[in-house]
Design a protein that fits this description.
The protein is α+β, with helices and mostly antiparallel strands and about 130 residues long. The protein contains 3 helices and 3 strands; from the N terminus they run ααβββα. A 3-stranded antiparallel sheet has the order 1-2-3, with helices on one face.
Length: about 130
């Protein structure tokens, strides 16, 4: 990555070729630092995602109470995606039912959706 740096002076011809070369070097270092910060941020995000996925795995194995497991999975998914709401639907042939819902935006538990008809996206039909 190549960087650029802007400097100003009221004096005419304030910067010589050595100054411009030095500023170019500083700009290149700044660009590398910015890119490194982006990489660190991405690694942090991926680490948080991995931790949440582990949490979901632990939730799936930690309890025999189906509703409790679904609640934990919903909460972990909401946190993982930084969403305002998340839920788990179960499917019985062509009927989907909300089994767990958390967050400030929720589909009420017990809500059903008939997966037959024009409201079903084509890509979902293969799962029915």
């Amino acid at each position: 990555m190549r960087g650029a740096l802007s400097t100003q002076s009221y004096r005419p011809d304030a910067y010589g070729s050595e100054d411009i070369e030095l500023l170019g070097g500083i700009a290149d270092l700044a660009a590398v630092a910015i890119e490194n910060a982006r990489h660190v941020s991405e690694l942090d995000r991926r680490s948080r995602e991995a931790d949440k996925l582990k949490e979901i795995g632990r939730a799936l194995m930690s309890s025999l109470d189906f509703e409790e497991v679904l609640g934990r999975v919903s909460a972990a998914a909401m946190d993982l995606l930084d969403a305002d709401g998340a839920g788990v639907w179960t499917f019985d042939h062509t009927l989907a039912t909300v089994r767990s819902s958390v967050g400030s935006i929720q589909v009420p538990v017990g809500t059903t959706w008939d997966l037959e008809g024009p409201l079903v996206p084509d890509h979902m039909r293969e799962f029915l």
